[in-house]
Design a protein that fits this description.
Strand order of the largest sheet: 5-4-3-6-7
Distance between the termini: 39 Å
Subcellular location: Membrane
InterPro entries: AA/rel_permease1, APC_K+_Transporter
Radius of gyration: 32 Å
Strand content: 5-15%
Protein name: APC family permease
Low-confidence stretches: 11-17, 646-680
Shape: elongated
Number of helices: 26
Oligomer: single chain
Mean pLDDT: 80
Helix content: 55-70%
Keywords: Membrane, Transmembrane, Transmembrane helix
Membrane topology: Multi-pass membrane protein
Number of strands: 7
């Protein structure tokens, strides 16, 4: 009931086409991350430049222009990816196809890490903006961040289309609000009434060692500011990964959405950066570096977007201020939705290629990759908790993975166009291919340079953690693939006639402790298999109980021999396992079938009273070659009286089965085996 309330009714596989997205919903779903980065990309540039005081803020427009140029190149490059590989997969597919599986796996690992960081940074930044409007909530930062992750998880489990409807309004409200704020502020500037930020009256004391920078030190400061501003590009690749989620014609709609995203993001980023310069926003990593404050410890700096809203709309209590802060907080939190769509899609493709567990390739009740959504939520939640939802701490782990993806995918596209030009003879097509190759070559060179800059400027500040996570993930995926390959090779049929040869004999053993109804059912079930031999086995650790069992056996005239295993040390598992193995060794071509009565209980706490000791016996026998273990269920009265709802079997929606195909007999996982043979 709770599950249906949270995620809605299960959907049949035939309804998958109904979940495809029109462009108006695809934009907020796949582009909320790059659009929302407008709220903090300018701030990250200013935070780095003010390390040297106010003297270096004149580099802001040049750094902003470089970020815009880079975004233009990346958007044009990914349009080529969409047209060349319309089946989706984006950078991973491009690189795997053109540069090999190992390089593709580098991209896969990098993007998975970056998607996790997208959720963490977006949610933490959104919480920051809420606190800018309501400083009294500062003590609840981590709790709010985890709550928003849980909310996003629930909404994405309901399905892509439903989450798109929910997230569309905040995205468009944010775009409209920022454009109105920028337009109003710049118009006031033109009319001679420029808005002034609340921090404009404060000076900034440079950090030790960052005064009077020149030469290489100045270059490194500017490059570091540029690398921080490149957070505006995060999430650009998500549309190329999610082409299959678009309505037909999929490539055309995806390319149009990518172009719209690029134009809107550039306009907003340029506007916010220009307005921050006009309003003289002064922001630093430590409020005590602001000069002119009476008590720096009690002063909470507002975000750049919050200061601009207050300056343009008339103060911290104006409607426009609260509108912008509300829209910004919503879009930043919902920006994580880009990752909630990209991560499950990419992990599904990696699972299909056997680099991740197969469960990540399965769709849930709402035809979304539920396991991928849950995995992302758990890892991002742990990251937010570990870093106290602090944007400054998290931002240094960010964007490294995405530029690795950018660089390798553009390099792969160069090889793709080279291969296409070898066989293409049509002059018009060749010209298009050559132009595309030029675009991708430029993209590879520029993003490769940015990758080096980001790595050099952020590595010691925390980016090494992202590098380490990517390397460990790459090794883990390689290990998973090797395990799947080994298993497939081991299970492959090489000689059907030899491998389907029946065993020489089937030797059946029923493990018993006392003579009761479950024991008799297990004996009857074993007889139904018509084994070559059948015997009951008990482990004697108490002579009185053994004598009582033998007497019952004789009184009821059970026509099955009772084998008694001695246990001087009162062990149950070891004597039984050793006996079964001895039978198996005596006949290497025989199969030993072990039958164990199993109690089915109605309440979870009953499992602590039953089904314990034989669990160890069963687990040991399952690892013995040539031995099969069969549990024979016996429903206790508690199981019969507890009503069980008719439920779908796992995966039944994907197979198109009706809801009454399978009835769950218990509310829990399959119960453990009953008490082990031998006296209790």
């Amino acid at each position: 009931m709770l599950k249906r309330l949270v995620i809605g009714r299960a959907m049949r596989s035939e309804e998958l086409s109904e979940t495809l997205l029109p462009k108006r919903l695809a934009l907020p779903i796949f582009a909320s991350d790059p659009l929302s980065s407008v709220a903090y990309a300018t701030q990250e540039i200013l935070l780095v430049l003010t390390l040297g005081g106010l003297a270096y803020l004149h580099f802001t427009p040049w750094i902003g222009a470089a970020v815009v140029a880079l975004m233009t190149v990346v958007v044009l490059s990914y349009r080529q990816v969409i047209n060349a590989y319309p089946s989706g997969g984006g950078s991973y597919t491009v690189v795997s196809t053109n540069l090999g599986p190992s390089a593709g796996l580098v991209v896969g690992a990098s993007l998975l890490v970056d998607y996790v960081m997208t959720v963490a940074v977006s949610v933490a930044s959104g919480v920051d903006n809420i606190i800018s409007a309501l400083p009294s909530l500062a003590d609840y930062r981590v709790l709010m961040a985890l709550g928003f992750v849980a909310l996003l998880t629930a909404m994405n489990l309901r399905g892509v289309r439903e989450s798109g409807r929910l997230f569309a309004s905040p995205t468009y409200l944010f775009i409209g609000g920022v454009l109105i704020m920028v337009g109003t502020g710049l118009l006031r500037y033109v009319l001679g009434d420029a808005p002034v930020a609340e921090s404009a009256r404060y000076g900034i004391t440079p950090t030790p060692g960052d005064t009077d920078l020149a030469g290489l030190a100045l270059v490194m400061l500017v490059l570091r500011a540029f690398s921080s501003g490149c957070t505006a590009l995060t999430g650009v690749e998500a549309i190329s990964n999610g082409v299959p989620a678009f309505r037909k014609p999929k490539p055309k709609n995806a390319a149009s959405t990518l172009a719209a995203m690029g134009i809107i993001a550039v306009v907003m980023f340029v506007g916010v950066t220009a307005l921050a310069i006009v309003a003289k926003v002064h922001i630093t990593d430590d409020s005590c570096r602001l000069t002119g404050l009476a008590d720096c410890g009690a002063y909470t700096q507002r975000t750049v977007i919050a200061q601009l809203a207050a300056a343009v709309f008339g103060g911290n209590n104006s409607f426009g201020f609260y509108y912008i802060q509300t829209a910004t907080a919503l879009i930043l939190i919902l920006a994580a939705n880009t990752a909630f769509n990209g991560f499950p899609l990419l992990s599904s493709i990696l699972a299909q290629h056997r680099y991740l567990p197969h469960q990540l390739h399965s769709r849930g009740d709402r035809l979304v990759f539920s396991n991928g959504i849950l995995a992302l939520a758990v890892v991002a939640g742990l990251l937010l908790y570990g870093f106290k939802a602090n944007v400054t701490s998290l931002i240094h782990l960010y964007i490294l993975g995405v530029f690795t993806s950018f660089t390798l995918s553009q390099t792969g596209m160069i090889r793709h166009w080279n291969r296409a030009l070898r066989t293409e003879t049509d002059p018009a097509s060749r010209r298009r291919h050559q132009l595309a190759r030029v675009i991708n070559t430029t993209g590879a060179a520029v993003t490769g340079l940015v990758l080096v800059i980001v790595l050099a400027t952020k590595f010691t500040q925390g980016a090494w953690l992202a590098v380490l996570a990517g390397v460990l993930l790459w090794l883990m995926m390689r290990g998973i693939r090797r395990q799947y390959d080994r298993t497939a090779a081991e299970l492959a049929v090489t000689d059907p006639r030899q491998e389907s040869t029946p065993p020489s004999r089937v030797l059946a053993i029923v493990l018993v402790s006392t003579l009761h109804k479950p024991t008799l059912r297990a004996l009857a079930y074993a007889r139904a298999f018509r084994p070559d031999s059948l015997e009951a086995v008990t482990v004697a650790v108490d002579q009185e109980s053994l004598a009582a069992l033998r007497k019952q056996w004789d009184d009821f005239d059970i026509q099955v021999p009772l084998k008694v295993l001695r246990s001087p040390y009162r062990e149950i598992t070891r004597p039984a396992v050793e006996y079964v193995r001895s039978i198996r060794r005596a006949g290497s071509h025989d199969v030993v079938a072990v039958f164990i009565p199993e109690y089915v209980v109605g309440y979870w706490w009953e499992n602590f009273l039953h089904n314990q000791s034989a669990l160890w016996l069963k687990s040991r026998l399952l690892f013995t070659p040539g031995v099969t273990v069969t549990s024979v269920p016996w429903q206790l009265s508690s199981a019969a009286h507890v009503k069980r709802p008719i439920a779908r079997a796992p995966g039944s929606v994907r197979r198109g089965e009706p809801p009454n195909t399978i009835r769950h007999t218990t509310a829990h996982p399959p119960p453990a085996p009953p008490d082990a043979p031998g006296p209790h």
